[in-house]
Amino acid sequence: MRLLLREALLSFRRAPLLSGLSVTTIAFSLFTVGLFALIAVNLRQALQGLEERVEIVGFVLRGTPPETITLASQDIAAFPEVQDVQYVTEDHALERARQELVEFRDAYRDLQVNPLPASLEIRLKDGYRNAGAVESVAERLRGFSFVDDVRYGRDWIQRLDRLRNLTGIVGLVVGLAFASVAVVIIGVTIRLTILQRAREISIMRLVGATNNFIRGPFLLEGALKGLLGGLLSLVLCYAGYRLFQGSGTASLSGLVFFGPNLMLLLVLFGVLIGLGGSLVSVGRHLRNV
Amino acid sequence: MIRFHNVFKSFPNGALALKDVSFHVSKSEYVFLTGHSGAGKSTILKLLFGEQRPSQGDVRVSGFSVSELRRHEVPKLRRRLGVVFQDFRLLEDRTAAENVAFALEVTGARRDTIPARTMRVLTQVGLAAKSRAYPRELSGGEQQRVAIARALVNDPSILLADEPTGNLDERATRGVFQLLREINAGGTVVVMATHDLDLVRQVNYRNIELREGAIAYDSSVDDARATGTR
After folding, report:
1. Is A260 in CB contact (< 8 Å) with chain B?
2. What order do you get walking across the sheet with A119-124 strand by strand?
3. How close, in Å, is residue B74 to chain A by CA atoms?
4. CA of B230 vs chain A CAs: smallest distance (Å)
5. Rounded CA gap, B196 and B167, in Å?
6. Which domains does chain A possess?
7. Which of A87, A215, B3, B168 could form a cystine bridge with B60, CB 3.0-4.6 A?
């Protein structure tokens, strides 16, 4: 193991320029992937904000006893899709209308009879805020005899669904494309390192080194370069994030950066790419000599 | 130790490097391979250390059949052999001792034995005092001695030398040749490809002369035959 580490580190010392180039290539390739991931994360964040506004409102028939509604609320809250149920009484509805609809405040003040019905406002759990789940919950809600009408903004929920699917597909395709380009570039860089050390490899073979022994230091070297490249790309991504965030544009001030898991994933991706690129390049070289 | 039996070697472009080559090398022999460039000397050596496979026929070295050798068995064969080349093939960024130790490290020798074994062979080739020198700080003859030390450090039973004196001046040639003779005297088979006929004439060792891929003359066979007919 000591020999493996020594040989791997020695290559950094022997060819600092090429090693630096490899690390920088990995870093910039991952930076591109990282920037895209950052956009995806923020887009997802924005979608989540929209999703949280998905709500189903069941209007209650006038005269329904509150106990019936309370009991039904408990049943509805037990639906697997439902996060919470809020019972809005007729008075509460009027109070809210007075506060929110300022232009009608006078009209509401002079009312003799409250025209607003009581309602149940249902919010769904994360993962169920799509057209299918909303439709299903709305259907079950209609089954309650005291429910007069159910509203949930069918059109915009469907549009949200389409947006979500589109973002997912575009994210996957573009992300894979960036990652593939990164893998190819990194493979080429590592191949350069191997060609530079072809003489050493031929001597190793001559004195009886096994292919596994020859591979070892290259794999470790590739993984180390991937690790350094991954860390550097993270720094670059953070710099890019700060640049956008501090650009003074109000809509960009709410940008979020990767959480610890995503940061780890990006670095791990670098390590894997370094390892994979080395494995392919050394394997090809050893097959050909 | 070595047996070539009706060996042919052709290349993908159709060129025939060896034509029906058969010979046998016994324990402790010193054998010269001579002939013009392209006669097949290096091909024989490459077949011996598993760098190439025969197209036809059988090559046996130290108990291995090169014709049937699987890829993962090549390192095992090479650990029983020592190989030196005209261009030394040393790692420029490692000292003489590190170059020699490298051959032990890659074969998984015990770490604590490496320094002593390295110094033993460097002493044997007369370079103990220059163990910390880099190849560029050594003369051609000294570099070849380091290469020989590296070839010897795993105690091979066969030493293959491809034009080992080809890049050396006369004095260095004499020194390296003397060293190879001493190694042979210790019981190691030495197979040496060379252009230097003066060297061949100096000693009464076996000489296999190749011409266009075939054996034109084998002193052990032809001289015995000549003696028999006299």
Report:
1. no
2. A82-88, A119-124, A55-60, A147-151
3. 8
4. 45
5. 11
6. 2-49+160-288 (no CATH), 55-151 (3.30.70.3040)
7. B3
